[in-house]
Fold this protein.
Amino acid sequence: MLLHDDEIPVDEGTVRSLLREQRPEWADLPVGPAGSGTDNTMFRLGDELLVRLPRTPDKATAVRKEQTWLPRLAPHLPCRVPEPVHAGRPGPAFPTVWSVYRWIDGDEVGPGSVTDWARFGVDLAAFVRSLRAVDLMGARREGELSGYRGGPLREYAWITESFDDCRRLPDPDLDIDVLHRIWSDSLALPGSTAPVGWLHGDLKPTNLLARGGRLHAAIDFGGLSVGLPDAEHSPVWDLPAEARQSYWDALDLDEPTWLRARGWAVAVGVSGVAYYRDSYPAFVAECRARLRAILGDAAERGR
C-alpha cells in the first residue's frame, strides 16, 4: 500500500538484497512483514531483529537521528526503546539509509493488552517526565531536532485547509465546526513557558508496546526533537478517559497546557483524516477515534 507520491517500494526481496550486500551473516534468516506506519515499513528478521526502511527519501534524516540519539537516551528511560544494531547504507536495492534494531517483544497498546488504564496513564507520564529530564547533551532545536510538534501551535496554521477538506467528507460522528472552535481557542491561549526538552513526538498507542498489562516499550522515535512539551501530551486522547486523567494528575499539568495539548490533538487528527482519507483507512480510523474522544471530553467538561 503506497501512501506518498515519492514512496520507495519495498518487499522481502529488497531486505534480502540489502542484507546480502551489507550483513551477509543475516541474509539467510527468515524475513517477514512486521507492519508499517506512515513513515516506515518494517520486516521481522529472524527471532531477534527488526528491519526498518523509510517510506520516502526525506525520512532518511529520521533514521540517522534514531541511530545517533537512541543509544544515548535509552539508559535514562524507564521502559525499553529501540536499540539500533546496524546503520544501513543506500545500495542498489534501496536508495537511502535504513536500520536494523533488536526485536522488542510486546503487544500494541489497547484493550487486549492493558489491564489497568489508570496505571498505564501513570506509566506513560513517567516516561514523558524521564525523557524531558534527560540532559540535552549538546542538542539544540535546529535541523533534524526541530520537529514542528516541538514548537508553538500557531506554526501549524496550515491546518485550516484540513478542516475545509474534512467538511467535505460525509462523517456524522464528527462535528468539524466544534473541532475548529476548540483548535481556534487553543491558538488564543498564552504560549508555553516550559523549558525546551526532549520529545518523542508521537506517543500514540501504535508506537507503544505493553507486556504483562503494563507499558513495556516506546518505539518509533522518527519524530524525536527538542522543544516545548504541549504536543507531547496530545496522544492521550487516543487512550481511555481514566488513562488521560491519571496522566494529567501524574504530571500535574495546568489547564492552559492541557488545552494547548488538546489543540494539538485536534490538529494532528484533522490533518490525518484529510491527508490519508483515500490511502490509509486504518490510520484515518485512529484519527477519527481521537477526534470523537476530544468532542466527548469537551462536552463533558463544558469547554
About this structure: The chain has a mean pLDDT of 93.
